[in-house]
């Protein structure tokens, strides 16, 4: 309300002094800061790396700032600057958000096929690992000896679970 009165007074007394539209500039620089902040800081922690929610919140804040800045510029072009640069910054910010979405949601999930990995249903190579109590257990032992508490007889197989994480 007060801003509108000041604008009307400035227009009534001659050429209005044009103001910088800080929301457009802040929104654009915030959108540009998301990618380096993810690469340098947020990508280090699993809570912000696996699902980049903090980065998406930053993009949402940047979008809100750009939208309100553009609305301000369109509503009062004689007072606020940014009628030309605002849409350009908005498109560049949208492109940065799209590139970030592609990189984090699609491209990072495209893992290459492991050539030497055993196939489903295939034979696993012989190995020995420590169990929960620290004893060495070999795959051939698991296949030849029945486990305690389970039916007496020859075991039918061993289920091996492989999962890939971030090392």
Note the topology.
Elements: H1 2-12, H2 22-40, H3 46-49, H4 53-75, H5 85-106, E1 128-130, E2 136-138, H6 139-144
Antiparallel strand pairs: 1-2
Helix pairs in contact: 2-4, 2-5, 4-5
What does the model show?
With 167 residues, this protein is mainly alpha-helical. The chain has a domain of 108 residues. The chain is 51% helix and 4% strand. It has six helices and two strands, in the order αααααββα. The chain has a two-stranded antiparallel sheet. Helix 2 packs antiparallel against helix 4. The longest helix is centred in the middle third of the chain and has 23 residues. The protein is rod-shaped, with a radius of gyration of 30 Å. The model has no long low-confidence stretch (mean pLDDT 82).
Low-pLDDT residue spans: none
Structural class: mainly alpha
Number of helices: 6
Helix % is 40-55%
How do the strands of the widest beta sheet line up side by side? Answer: 1-2
Number of E strands: 2
Dominant shape: rod-shaped
Biggest β-sheet description = 2 strands, antiparallel
Strand content: under 5%
Alpha-carbon distance between the termini? 56 Å
Mean pLDDT over all positions: 82
Rg estimate, integer Å = 30 Å
Provide the succession of SSEs. Answer: HHHHHEEH
Defining key terms:
single chain, 167 residues, mainly alpha, two-stranded antiparallel sheet, 2 strands, 4% strand, rod-shaped
Short description:
This protein is mainly alpha-helical. The chain contains six helices and two strands. The protein has helices at 2-12, 22-40, 46-49, 53-75, 85-106, 139-144, and strands spanning 128-130, 136-138.
């Amino acid at each position: 309300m007060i801003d509108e009165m000041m604008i009307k007074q400035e227009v009534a007394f001659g050429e209005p002094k044009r103001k910088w539209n800080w929301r457009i500039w802040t929104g654009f620089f915030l959108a540009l800061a998301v990618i380096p902040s993810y690469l340098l800081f947020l990508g280090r922690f699993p809570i912000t790396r696996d699902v980049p929610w903090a980065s998406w919140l930053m993009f949402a804040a940047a979008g809100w700032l750009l939208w309100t800045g553009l609305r301000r510029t369109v509503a009062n072009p004689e007072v606020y600057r940014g009628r030309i640069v605002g849409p350009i910054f908005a498109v560049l910010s949208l492109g940065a958000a799209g590139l970030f979405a592609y990189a984090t949601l699609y491209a990072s999930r495209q893992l290459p096929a492991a050539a030497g990995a055993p196939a489903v249903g295939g034979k696993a190579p012989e190995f020995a690992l420590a169990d929960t109590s620290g004893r060495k257990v070999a795959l051939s032992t698991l296949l030849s000896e029945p486990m305690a508490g389970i039916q007496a007889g020859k075991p039918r197989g061993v289920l091996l679970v492989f999962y890939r994480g971030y090392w």
